[in-house]
Design brief:
Elements (H helix, E strand, L loop, with lengths): L2 H4 L15 H12 L7 E5 L5 H8 L3 E6 L2 H13 L6 E3 L10 E7 L13 H6 L7 H13 E12 L5 H8 L2 E10 L4 E9 L2
Parallel strand pairs: 1-2, 1-4, 2-3, 4-5
Antiparallel strand pairs: 5-7, 6-7
Protein backbone atom coordinates (compact mmCIF):
# COMPACT_ATOMS: atom_id res chain seq x y z
CA UNK A 1 0.00 0.00 0.00
CA UNK A 2 1.32 3.46 -0.88
CA UNK A 3 1.50 6.51 1.37
CA UNK A 4 -1.15 8.13 -0.83
CA UNK A 5 -3.55 5.32 0.04
CA UNK A 6 -2.42 5.24 3.68
CA UNK A 7 -3.24 8.94 4.03
CA UNK A 8 -6.62 8.49 2.30
CA UNK A 9 -5.77 11.00 -0.43
CA UNK A 10 -7.40 11.12 -3.86
CA UNK A 11 -5.54 12.74 -6.70
CA UNK A 12 -6.46 13.52 -10.29
CA UNK A 13 -3.72 13.52 -12.92
CA UNK A 14 -3.32 15.33 -16.24
CA UNK A 15 -1.21 14.44 -19.30
CA UNK A 16 0.61 17.81 -19.12
CA UNK A 17 1.35 17.61 -15.37
CA UNK A 18 3.94 15.39 -13.71
CA UNK A 19 2.00 12.76 -11.79
CA UNK A 20 2.71 10.99 -8.50
CA UNK A 21 5.72 8.65 -8.70
CA UNK A 22 8.46 7.32 -6.42
CA UNK A 23 9.86 10.81 -5.86
CA UNK A 24 6.42 12.11 -4.85
CA UNK A 25 6.07 9.33 -2.28
CA UNK A 26 9.52 10.23 -0.97
CA UNK A 27 8.48 13.87 -0.56
CA UNK A 28 5.39 12.71 1.36
CA UNK A 29 7.61 10.56 3.56
CA UNK A 30 9.80 13.56 4.25
CA UNK A 31 6.73 15.66 5.08
CA UNK A 32 5.57 13.07 7.62
CA UNK A 33 9.05 12.92 9.19
CA UNK A 34 9.01 16.72 9.51
CA UNK A 35 5.32 16.91 10.41
CA UNK A 36 4.39 20.59 10.68
CA UNK A 37 2.52 21.76 13.76
CA UNK A 38 -1.12 22.70 13.33
CA UNK A 39 -1.26 26.20 11.87
CA UNK A 40 2.32 26.10 10.55
CA UNK A 41 2.89 27.84 7.22
CA UNK A 42 3.90 25.38 4.51
CA UNK A 43 4.75 26.05 0.86
CA UNK A 44 4.88 23.38 -1.83
CA UNK A 45 6.95 24.64 -4.75
CA UNK A 46 6.53 23.08 -8.19
CA UNK A 47 3.44 21.43 -6.81
CA UNK A 48 2.26 19.50 -9.88
CA UNK A 49 -0.78 17.57 -8.63
CA UNK A 50 -0.28 19.25 -5.19
CA UNK A 51 -0.28 15.94 -3.39
CA UNK A 52 2.15 17.11 -0.69
CA UNK A 53 0.27 20.40 -0.29
CA UNK A 54 -2.99 18.51 0.19
CA UNK A 55 -1.35 16.19 2.75
CA UNK A 56 0.08 19.18 4.66
CA UNK A 57 -3.33 20.87 4.67
CA UNK A 58 -4.89 17.65 5.98
CA UNK A 59 -2.35 17.78 8.82
CA UNK A 60 -3.65 21.23 9.75
CA UNK A 61 -1.00 23.42 8.12
CA UNK A 62 -1.71 26.72 6.37
CA UNK A 63 -0.58 25.95 2.85
CA UNK A 64 0.50 27.83 -0.27
CA UNK A 65 1.18 25.88 -3.48
CA UNK A 66 2.90 27.14 -6.61
CA UNK A 67 3.91 25.92 -10.05
CA UNK A 68 5.11 27.49 -13.31
CA UNK A 69 2.46 25.54 -15.23
CA UNK A 70 -1.10 26.84 -15.50
CA UNK A 71 -2.30 23.26 -16.06
CA UNK A 72 -0.65 22.22 -12.80
CA UNK A 73 -2.18 25.14 -10.90
CA UNK A 74 -5.64 24.28 -12.20
CA UNK A 75 -5.15 20.63 -11.27
CA UNK A 76 -3.84 21.54 -7.81
CA UNK A 77 -7.02 23.50 -7.09
CA UNK A 78 -9.18 20.54 -8.19
CA UNK A 79 -7.21 18.10 -6.05
CA UNK A 80 -7.45 20.36 -3.01
CA UNK A 81 -11.21 20.64 -3.45
CA UNK A 82 -11.70 16.91 -3.96
CA UNK A 83 -9.78 16.20 -0.76
CA UNK A 84 -11.82 18.69 1.26
CA UNK A 85 -9.12 21.32 1.79
CA UNK A 86 -8.52 24.84 0.47
CA UNK A 87 -5.35 26.82 -0.03
CA UNK A 88 -4.06 29.45 -2.48
CA UNK A 89 -2.34 28.17 -5.62
CA UNK A 90 -0.09 30.67 -7.41
CA UNK A 91 1.45 30.43 -10.86
CA UNK A 92 5.07 31.52 -10.60
CA UNK A 93 8.74 30.59 -10.60
CA UNK A 94 9.88 28.90 -7.39
CA UNK A 95 9.38 31.36 -4.47
CA UNK A 96 10.11 34.57 -6.38
CA UNK A 97 6.57 35.84 -5.71
CA UNK A 98 6.42 34.87 -2.02
CA UNK A 99 7.33 36.82 1.08
CA UNK A 100 6.80 34.10 3.70
CA UNK A 101 7.54 33.48 6.43
CA UNK A 102 7.24 29.72 5.93
CA UNK A 103 7.94 27.11 8.58
CA UNK A 104 8.39 24.39 5.97
CA UNK A 105 9.08 24.45 2.22
CA UNK A 106 8.49 21.30 0.15
CA UNK A 107 10.03 20.79 -3.28
CA UNK A 108 10.11 17.70 -5.48
CA UNK A 109 12.78 19.39 -7.54
CA UNK A 110 13.52 18.91 -11.24
CA UNK A 111 16.66 16.88 -10.54
CA UNK A 112 17.88 15.23 -13.77
CA UNK A 113 20.52 16.78 -16.04
CA UNK A 114 19.01 18.23 -19.22
CA UNK A 115 19.79 16.26 -22.35
CA UNK A 116 21.34 18.60 -24.96
CA UNK A 117 19.19 18.97 -28.06
CA UNK A 118 16.27 16.99 -26.64
CA UNK A 119 12.78 18.42 -27.17
CA UNK A 120 11.27 19.06 -23.77
CA UNK A 121 7.56 18.73 -23.14
CA UNK A 122 5.90 19.57 -19.81
CA UNK A 123 6.79 16.25 -18.20
CA UNK A 124 10.44 16.48 -19.28
CA UNK A 125 10.56 20.05 -17.97
CA UNK A 126 9.29 18.80 -14.62
CA UNK A 127 12.31 16.49 -14.39
CA UNK A 128 15.06 18.59 -16.04
CA UNK A 129 16.94 20.65 -13.49
CA UNK A 130 19.46 22.32 -15.80
CA UNK A 131 22.82 21.32 -17.25
CA UNK A 132 23.86 19.29 -14.19
CA UNK A 133 20.37 18.69 -12.81
CA UNK A 134 21.11 20.90 -9.79
CA UNK A 135 20.55 24.42 -11.10
CA UNK A 136 16.84 24.76 -10.27
CA UNK A 137 17.28 23.33 -6.79
CA UNK A 138 20.30 25.58 -6.17
CA UNK A 139 18.18 28.65 -7.00
CA UNK A 140 15.55 27.57 -4.49
CA UNK A 141 18.14 26.86 -1.79
CA UNK A 142 19.65 30.34 -2.27
CA UNK A 143 16.22 31.90 -1.67
CA UNK A 144 15.22 29.87 1.39
CA UNK A 145 16.68 32.18 4.07
CA UNK A 146 14.63 35.07 2.64
CA UNK A 147 11.28 33.30 3.10
CA UNK A 148 11.86 31.17 6.19
CA UNK A 149 10.35 31.75 9.60
CA UNK A 150 12.71 31.32 12.58
CA UNK A 151 13.64 27.61 12.70
CA UNK A 152 12.35 27.23 9.13
CA UNK A 153 13.30 24.15 7.19
CA UNK A 154 12.78 22.50 3.82
CA UNK A 155 12.31 18.99 2.48
CA UNK A 156 13.55 18.52 -1.07
CA UNK A 157 14.00 15.49 -3.33
CA UNK A 158 17.16 14.98 -5.38
CA UNK A 159 18.74 12.12 -7.29
CA UNK A 160 22.15 10.48 -7.23
CA UNK A 161 22.36 11.86 -10.79
CA UNK A 162 21.86 15.44 -9.57
CA UNK A 163 25.02 17.55 -9.56
CA UNK A 164 26.44 18.99 -6.31
CA UNK A 165 25.71 22.68 -7.02
CA UNK A 166 22.67 22.80 -4.75
CA UNK A 167 24.59 21.40 -1.76
CA UNK A 168 27.41 23.86 -2.44
CA UNK A 169 24.81 26.66 -2.46
CA UNK A 170 23.46 25.40 0.87
CA UNK A 171 26.93 25.70 2.41
CA UNK A 172 27.36 29.23 1.01
CA UNK A 173 23.98 30.17 2.50
CA UNK A 174 24.89 28.80 5.94
CA UNK A 175 22.52 25.85 5.60
CA UNK A 176 22.96 22.18 6.35
CA UNK A 177 21.42 19.32 4.34
CA UNK A 178 20.96 15.84 5.74
CA UNK A 179 19.19 12.82 4.25
CA UNK A 180 15.79 11.90 5.66
CA UNK A 181 14.76 8.97 3.47
CA UNK A 182 16.16 7.09 0.48
CA UNK A 183 14.55 5.16 -2.37
CA UNK A 184 16.77 2.91 -4.52
CA UNK A 185 15.67 2.60 -8.15
CA UNK A 186 17.27 0.62 -10.99
CA UNK A 187 19.18 3.58 -12.49
CA UNK A 188 19.42 6.02 -9.61
CA UNK A 189 18.94 6.60 -5.91
CA UNK A 190 16.44 9.21 -4.77
CA UNK A 191 16.84 11.01 -1.46
CA UNK A 192 14.55 13.26 0.53
CA UNK A 193 16.81 15.88 2.13
CA UNK A 194 16.11 18.08 5.14
CA UNK A 195 17.61 21.56 4.80
CA UNK A 196 17.86 23.91 7.77
CA UNK A 197 20.10 26.66 9.10
CA UNK A 198 23.29 25.36 10.64
CA UNK A 199 23.18 25.57 14.41
Amino acid sequence: MSLVEDLGLRVRTHPRVYGPAEDTELLLEGLLLETPAAGARVAEVGCGTALAAVAAAKLGARVLASDRSQAACDLARKNASENGVRFPVVQGDLLSFAKGPFDLVLFNAPYLPDEPGARAGPIEEALGGGRTGAETLARLVADLPRVWAPAGRAVVVASSRTGPAWREQAVRSGLAARPLAVRKLPFEELTAWRIAAER
